[in-house]
Amino acid sequence: MLRKLLVKRHGILLELSLWILLAIGAVGGIGTGAALGRWSVRAPAGGVSGAFYGIAVPFIGAAFVVAPVIFVRDIRESVSGPEEAGSGDCAA
After folding, report:
1. Which of 3, 18, 40, 84 has the most beta carbons within 10 angstroms of its beta carbon?
2. Per the domain annotation, does 47 fall within a domain?
3. Considering Cα of 74, then 78, then 79, then 85, what sign does the dihedral take?
4. CA end-to-end span of the chain
């Protein structure tokens, strides 16, 4: 039962995990930027720039890892739609 639920709702789980990843990246970027600001003279002391880099790096990584899965899911949904409606008959 849990397997069927996960298969049906994997799109929602993927999107939720991506948003959580970006939130964690923002918080981690602020902390990393603040730590670098204490030890380096020229580094920005956290704030907006740290949050930006903390969001940008996980976003690029997720784009390469999760985007193909999302594309396959969208293609699968677009193909299964006409088949379920009965317009996918290829009888000659």
Report:
1. 18
2. yes
3. positive
4. 39
Vertex 16, ends 58 and 5: CA angle to 5°? 135
- In this prediction the pTM is 0.62
CA torsion 20→12→71→74, rounded to 10°? -160
- The DSSP code for 88 is T
| Six-digit token string for 4 | 């069927």
The more confident residue out of 44 and 72 is 72
Residue 83 clears pLDDT 70, i.e. is over it: no
Count: domains in the chain: 1
Which tens digits make up the pLDDT trace of 10-26? 778 888 888 898 888 88
Cβ-contact 31, 46 below 8 angstroms? yes
Tokens found for residue 73: 């899911």
